[in-house]
UniProtKB/TrEMBL annotation:
<dbReference type="Pfam" id="PF00561">
    <property type="entry name" value="Abhydrolase_1"/>
</dbReference>
<dbReference type="InterPro" id="IPR029058">
    <property type="entry name" value="AB_hydrolase_fold"/>
</dbReference>
<feature type="domain" description="AB hydrolase-1">
    <location>
        <begin position="58"/>
        <end position="164"/>
    </location>
</feature>
<dbReference type="InterPro" id="IPR000073">
    <property type="entry name" value="AB_hydrolase_1"/>
</dbReference>
<protein>
    <recommendedName>
        <fullName>AB hydrolase-1 domain-containing protein</fullName>
    </recommendedName>
</protein>
Length: 260
């Protein structure tokens, strides 16, 4: 890694709460979504399989509408989670998500791809562990599954103390940083102002990978770089998944992952 990358990483790690100021880019990123339409229109077409999109904390289906509209235009059956505002992993939420997954799988007769933004990515990963036979692949956007609190028992106890309710994610699934048994992509940003990028680092393996973009946390679900990467991942043939290729212009648009 270059000295410039090392200096950038050190700078980001020392900002602490000041990193929140980086979220001010979200308006620019939303504008860039419209400017990038000619490029995004060249994204690979979908095969019509269902895609369930799970929102971030305090987000709702309206917040994922731009992403779902983009996927619909590519030919996918992009579906909202349908549970209102995401108020956190309370008791019953995972059961409702599982019912939604089972319904889409039965209705379309095909395995469902899961996209989870931030906290929604935790739901997506755990759903894929619970029902891997119904899930085609998982894509997370700025999801904090690999931080110091990756032991779910600690999160469970904290949630219960704060709200009096269980967190609703099954303990039997093991640590949050344990990847699902399906192709899994973590899209992350080193300049994420809410979730530190190292907390979204997937251990790379035969069916797991990380894709680095430069984005705010609040813009990850409609940043043009995120959308293009999502389209590329969803277009992988079922049961013939291959890692994201950083060749040509992509090597510039999607920089190599620095050391954590």
């Amino acid at each position: 890694m270059s000295n410039a990358h090392q200096a950038f990483d050190h700078w980001l790690s020392t900002l602490g709460p000041l990193r929140l100021a980086l979220e001010g880019r979200v308006g620019w990123e939303f504008g860039a979504l419209f400017a990038a339409q000619p490029w995004l229109a060249q994204s690979p077409r979908g095969d019509g399989h269902p895609v369930l999109v799970l929102p971030r904390f305090l987000g709702c289906d309206l917040s994922t509408q731009p992403l779902r509209d983009f996927l619909d235009r590519l030919g996918y059956r992009a579906e909202p989670w349908g549970l209102g505002v995401n108020l956190g992993p309370r008791a019953g939420v995972m059961d409702a998500c599982l019912e939604r997954l089972e319904h889409l799988h039965a209705t379309h007769g095909r395995r469902v791809s899961l996209i989870g933004w931030s906290l929604g990515g935790l739901y997506a990963r755990e759903l894929a562990k619970e029902a891997p036979e119904q899930v085609r692949l998982v894509i997370t956007l700025g999801t904090p599954f690999a931080g110091d609190q990756s032991d779910p028992s600690e999160l469970w106890r904290l949630q219960e103390r704060m709200t009096g309710e269980s967190i609703g994610l099954p303990l039997r699934h093991g640590p949050l940083d344990q990847a699902p048994p399906v192709p899994t992509t973590s899209i992350l940003s080193r300049s994420d102002g809410i979730v530190h990028w190292t907390d979204s680092l997937e251990r790379e393996g035969p069916i797991t990978e990380n894709i680095l973009v430069e984005s705010s946390h609040l813009g990850l679900a409609f940043n043009p770089l995120s959308l293009h990467a999502i389209a590329d991942r969803l277009a992988q043939p079922e049961d013939a998944w291959r890692p994201f290729e950083r060749t040509g212009a992509r090597a510039w648009l999607y920089p190599a992952l620095p050391r954590a």
